[in-house]
Amino acid sequence: MKPTEQRVQQLPHLVRLLMLLTAAVVLVLVVVVTRIYGPVGAPAPTVVANEATDGPPPPGSYHRPATPAPDTALIPRTAAGRRIRYGRELIASTAQYLGPAGSVAHLTNGMNCQNCHLQAGTQGFANNYLAVAATYPKLRARSGQVEGIEKRVNDCLVRSLNGQALADSSREMRAMVAYIKWLGQGIPKGQKVYGTGFMQLAYLDRATDPVIGKAVFAGKCQSCHGPEGQGQPLADGRGYQYPPLWGPHSYNDGAGLFRVTNFAKYVKAAMPYGATFDHPQLTDKQAWDVAAFVNSQPRPHLSASHDWPDIGQKPVDYPFGPYADAFSVRQHKYGPWQPIEAAHPAKNK
């Protein structure tokens, strides 16, 4: 056989060999690229599952007890005492008096003040009332005005209970103010006490994640608040055993808890039911991510165009522009917040 004929016969074998080599190279490249970059938008089910089932964490750094509230047994048996007790009842069972089927008026969404201010405003780091009388009246950056206790109460009714304001002169407003002042008896003017406000919670080194938070909610929260976050109504229809966390009957987007940092600090110190700031049931990551999930859900809108008249005073997590910086609305809402704080060093002193 001539050499030319041999080369012709070998040509198909060479072509097949080249095709096999090419296929092998392409396969190797695909594997390498996939390992380096991963598929776009791939979920992380293992991380979600782990975070949803973690906990409870060990007791935190808040070891000493919160400042105790006065003993309600010591409320005097006088006309002034009856007003204080009525004020406490209004805080604890707001819907019974002011809800959609309230006995006094129909002003609110059916939630109670106590749903956010636990144990009628006395539980430590759970929106505690003890220092309110000592710190109000005060200038609030949100309104740009000096506000008294009455304005603070009405802010909760309008925002957190998505309702209408009470007249300052009404029996109900006078009673709630009397109760709040009674709680703060003996606290010097201008002084905060341990257990008021929110507990400290270090920022994550990433943005909060509503997707992970959804899994946390399913594992830690929905047994009380329901799989759709609509809460558990009382049998008589006048309030909730466990309140709705989103939807038409929950707090609106002007409420303080609509800020993710506030909600995260609150649930870390007080949720799920039975948790306290010194014996939490959620890890820090769970608190941050479930706060992001809950506040990513639909809820009533409050027109609050007059809030934060000095936009340079807006908190880093305030989810509505305009801002005095170039960070996006999404980053302001979900973080990471460290870069935003770094851009406003004077405000954070």
TrEMBL record:
Ranges for domain Cytochrome c: 208-298
Region of interest (Disordered), ranges: 47-71
Write the record's keywords in alphabetical order, separated by commas: Heme, Iron, Membrane, Metal-binding, Transmembrane, Transmembrane helix
Q: Where are the transmembrane segments?
A: 14-37
**Heme recorded as keyword:** yes
Any single GO molecular-function term of the entry would be:
electron transfer activity
Protein name per the record: Cytochrome c
- Its source organism is Hymenobacter psychrophilus
